[in-house]
Every structure is written in structure tokens, then in C-alpha cells.
Amino acid sequence: MTGDAVSVGSDGQTLAARLAALAYIDPHRPAVTCGRNSLTRTELERISNRLARAYQDLGVTKDSLVTIALPTGVEFLAATIAVWKCGATPQPISAKLPHHEAAAIIDLAQPSLVIGLDQHDVPDISVIPSGFEPSPGIADTYLDVGAAAEWKAPTSGGSSGRPKLIVSTEPAVAATVEPFARLMGVRDNDTLLITAPLYHNGPFLMSACGLTLGAHVVLVTRFDAAETLRIIERHRVEWMYVVPTMMMRIWRLEERESFDVRSLRVVAHTAAPCPAWLKQGWIDWLGADRILELYGSTELQAATLLTGDEWLARPGTVGKPAIGEMTVLDETGSPLASGNAGEIWMRRAANAQRPYRYIGAVAQSRQDGWETFGDMGWMDDEGYVYLADRKADMIIVGGANVYPAEVEGALLEHPLVRSAVVVGRSHEDLGQVPHAFVELASDLDEQTLLAHLATRIARYKMPRSFERVDEPLRDNAGKVRRSALAASAATFTPPPPTG
Prior knowledge:
2 domains, GMP Synthetase, Chain A, domain 3, 13-stranded mixed sheet
């Protein structure tokens, strides 16, 4: 390495150069840990250098996409860094995707290499399996062919299930990642705990943020509430990424108070609405100054940020825009006065370049740069945003709007409800009525659930039917496939009344 590469603050420094510089400065500091597998900065640098050279031999070229279908772990981040060192763009997907879904994404991406799948799954593209080791003769010395023009390309199926790639149009340089890391409260040399799978954008982004600032990034292969608290205690975690589903599982642990979590400085939650009772509980437990909420999308046209103190002053808000701009428009595209619900639109800044491009989809945009991702809500006089639900998820009951997130939050207040999702079912008279899928900790009859809801939501919002499931309704990143559940609800036959 040259002396220039060691300068962590260099303008335009590539992500590859930043990580190499950090390894030079403190070679023995832990960089990534997952379970018993841990790599120091130097070990991660050498491994990723060797992988990058092997990837080049397999056909990875500058500004090509590389599909990463690896389980969450040290190997995933080492592969990501190696892709950056090749000047290419990492394109993460779940290692557990069914063949037809993975094939559809790969067909869109047309990657130069697929990491983690079998060759028979992708017959026309270079493929290497999980656990791939470069040949012994490949050098582990510094490699960096220059920054990719697009630094990441996560996927999203949305509620429709149709895959699309959301390709960042910002380069793979430290100046792309570092400002967001600072905004999210990450500090130099922190210990970050990433509790969700890396193929999701939020965990991927925050892992990159941590690595860029020299953090020790701690990963978990599968979320477990008690183990998460043990990890915080063992590693003295200072910054943690969670989603509301995880927050609820931790909150309901009987032994929660027995763990030492005083090291936590920031608990950042995102990805789904957080019920007010749950957020209040975490504030009471850890203190408002430790709770940080982000509302935005993978596209990152705009995003809000919210501290616990701000939420206490304005319960229900998700914060003010910290990136870009937001506005609320009615169905005709006209701006709504504060306090009136409509569709939320976002943009970076007037005439600013769009920070992403789609492969496999078309943005819902206006000529003036505003775009919408389907969320409904309103803003107050001070510019704080309040969410209702996604437009596509809204249930219209006899002309009245019912937002599933509100009903789900009320259901989750019951201590025996582990997870809940509400969708609309066709109704001859009312058009639609709410139907609730519930995962229960123990047997609970429908009347008890209705009595619980009656003290929390209006009668017209109450589910007209309940369907019990045996598995969690949301994955470890807080995501749910509503389209599949809605299809199931359409064919559901309520059991006959008893007694």
C-alpha cells in the first residue's frame, strides 16, 4: 500500500482503500464476528484480496454486477469487499430463495458471477459455491481497481412479489457511505450488532457503514432474543440494528432485565411500523436518548430520523426529513394542508440527481422529481411525518379506510399474540372486511381477541375473521408477503360457531 491509501480521510477514497487503510492503522482489531468465526482487519483484508483476484479470474469486470447468495456471516462480508475491490457492484439475495425466484432476479441482473448457488441452478453464468477457497497461489496483497460507479444493488419484491433491483447510482467510495453512518449515530471504532439478514438493504447498508468507520461488525445467523442480549453483554455492543418484531421478542423475555446492556448507546429501528406501546416500553427501559428511528426506503430518495425525545413530544411521528424532502398529496396530486392524510411523496432536492435506478420496474414519479412508494400519512405544522399505512395495504370497509398496521399493533399488545398480519377479504355488503392472521403463544379464542381489540380500535376496524398460523408471519427483517396472505384469506372459510 502507498501512504496515500492509508489516509482515512482522503476525498474520493474507495471503499476498498478505506478498509485497507483501517487494516494498516490497527491490524489486530476485530473487524467481523459471527458466532465463533471472527476476523481481524488484517485477516479480512487479506482474504478479500485473494477472493477479488479469484473473482477477476472468473470473469468479474469493473462495473459488472455480482450476485451474492450466501448466508449471513463472515463469508458474506468478505465476498462483498472482494467485489468492491474488483470495481464491481454487489447484488445480494437470500441464500434460501426458491429456484424460480433466484432465477428471475439473476435474469434481471445478468451478473458476471454468482456466489453461493450451484452451477445447475445458473447454467449460463460463472458460479462458485458457499465456502469457496481461491487457489493457494493467489496473492493476498492489496488490490483496488477503482470504485464501481454503483455501490450496491439490493433486491425487492414489494407486496406484489415481483422482483426488482434497486441499484444505487452513487459510487463505491467512503464519501457515499460515511455521511449516512454519521447520521445514524455510528462512531469510529464502534461495535455494531446487525440482527437481521444481510441480503436485506438495511442490514447490508449498516454493515457497510460500520466497516467504513472501522467498527467491529457482529452478525447473527438467526435472531434469538436471549442470545441477542447475551451478545450485547459479551461484546459490549454500542450500536444495534433491530426491527419491531425483534423488539417485541426481546421485550417479552422474562429474563430481559438480568442482562447488562449498559454499553448500548444507539438502538436503531426501522423496516416496519413500531407500535406505540412497544416503543414506549423500550424508552422506559433504556432511555429516550438511546432510541433512534429511521423511516425511508431502499431507494433513499428521502428519509426521516427520529430520536426518542422527539417521539415523546409527538407520539406517533416517524420524524422530520433528514435526507431529501417529503410532501403529502391528494389523489389529484395537489398538496394537502398539515394534518390531512394523503399519499407521501419524496425527492432528494429540487433538480438533484436520482440516487437509484430500477432494473425490472418503473418508478412512480412526477416531472418535478417527486416519487411515491405507496405510503399514506400526513405531516404536522412543524414538518413531522405521521404514517397511516401503505396505500396498497389499506382496507376500505363500507367506504371507511382501515389501516392494517393499526389493527396489527393493537393485536400485538395482547401478551399471547406473537405475530399478526391483517389483510382485506371480499364482502358482499361492505366491499372489504379485515381478516387477521395470528400466531399465538397458547390457545386463545376469538372472543377474547375481540374483547381485547374492543378497548383499542373502533368497531368497523375489527377483524371479521381470524386464521391461526404456526409459524412467524414476518421474517427476521420484519418483512411480510401480504399478497400471498391476501390470496389465502380469499379462500378462507371461517369455522362454524361453537356452543
